[in-house]
Amino acid sequence: QAKQVGRNNYRYYSPEMNRHAEERIAMETALSRAIENNELFILYQPKMDVMSNRISGMEALLRWNHPVFGAVPPQRFIRLAEEVGLIHSIGYWAIRNACRQNREWQRINPARMKVAVNLSARQLGDDKLIDNITNILAETMLEARYLELEIAESAVMADPDKAIAVLNALRDIGVSVAIDDFGAGYSSLAYLKQFPIRAVKIDQSFVQGVPFSRSDAAITKAIINLAHSLECSVIAEGAETQQQFDFLRDNDCDSVQGFFFSEPVSAEHFTDLLRVQANLHIH
Ligand code: C2E
Ligand code: MG
Ligand code: MG
Ligand code: MG
């Protein structure tokens, strides 16, 4: 028994193996309708400046709530979207909405901040990336310097020469780039020097090991020093405790993001955080 999935794509099932495959197809179909059905939304997590202890930016984190599948973890639906080619529509939806939201925050908050949006490997390879980002910035009236793209080290290293070209093009239109999950991939230092990047994000697997794991502490310090010597800012992600925060501050990390300060929250809740911080009178 064969069932057609998309173009010229036949899959064969035996009765034992098909439950999993059918759920996947159902999820793929559901994901293809997630935008029109208003099932996607974005949470924002503050990035805290270590010296001032104030919010200095935010990361947009995509969420998908489906009536049957429930809250599907981003790791799962982003990977599915990558595999079936839905990542472009979903990814640009996320960038557009994050830009629009940041523009809105700029109207009420004089302290302007960058919004960071994640970009997957396949998005990085999109020939229309620069044109589409340019159009989204024009449409949402957000200045390019207030958009940052977070690209995982592993995505950059999948095709480093191509990545250098894309990162240069992003820099030319004024959008900044942070290397995400740094330390978990396999960058050669020779390449790292050639990437026009503003910031490096230390992978949470190391951050969560400090200060007690000697190797995680050593790696974290080495990444901070490396980033600074390349004139990049360093941000630690996944900080959950006071001890982790103290270690990062004492070792000159520039910013920290993690449950220690705040989980990812709705745009409305984030507005409250900004209001408290700025003592704003937003009506
Ligand atoms: P990421 O970019 O590395 O995001 C950091 C993840 O760590 C987020 O998971 C965040 O909720 C989580 N996190 C933050 N602080 C803490 C902490 O203190 N402790 C722990 N245990 N976790 C913390 P989330 O939201 O589940 O996102 C997972 C991944 O999905 C992201 O990893 C990113 O790679 C991807 N993703 C999310 N939104 C988008 C998007 O709009 N586009 C693309 N292409 N990928 C996205
Ligand atoms: Mg990220
Ligand atoms: Mg990360
Ligand atoms: Mg991660």
UniProtKB/TrEMBL annotation:
Domain of life: Bacteria
Localization of this protein: Cell membrane
Ranges of residues in domain EAL: 24-278
Protein name, UniProt field: EAL domain-containing protein
Taxonomic source organism: Noviherbaspirillum album
Full protein stretch here: 729 to 1011 of 1011
